[in-house]
């Protein structure tokens, strides 16, 4: 059976909060997962330890468990892939360049 790493949404209206979960591919988004490996808060907040005043999105992840599930063949969704690449577990997906080169060859 295919296992996926994906986000399960929690929180209120206009205030989302996500658990990063490992679950079977054919189950509902908010059904009981195999394992919860982290959380993601997409609403930017000020970091109390950062004096620059920049806003940060909060990603908490159990890196060893995420590497384990990737190692045994779990397939992350596109959003989970982006979060895992931000943490440094997997390589970012290739993004095609928006600029095109139209140079003439001599």
UniProtKB/TrEMBL annotation:
Assigned GO CC terms: mitochondrial small ribosomal subunit
PROSITE patterns: RIBOSOMAL_S16 (PS00732)
Keyword set, alphabetical order: Ribonucleoprotein, Ribosomal protein
Keyword Ribonucleoprotein applies: yes
InterPro entries in UniProt: Ribosomal_bS16 (IPR000307), Ribosomal_bS16_CS (IPR020592), Ribosomal_bS16_dom_sf (IPR023803)
SUPFAM superfamilies: Ribosomal protein S16
Xref: Gene3D superfamilies: 3.30.1320.10
GO BP terms in the entry: mitochondrial translation
GO MF terms held by the record: structural constituent of ribosome
Top-level taxon in the UniProt lineage: Eukaryota
HAMAP family named in the record: Ribosomal_bS16
Alphabetized NCBIfam families for the sequence: S16
Family from the record: Belongs to the bacterial ribosomal protein bS16 family.
Protein name: Ribosomal protein S16 domain-containing protein
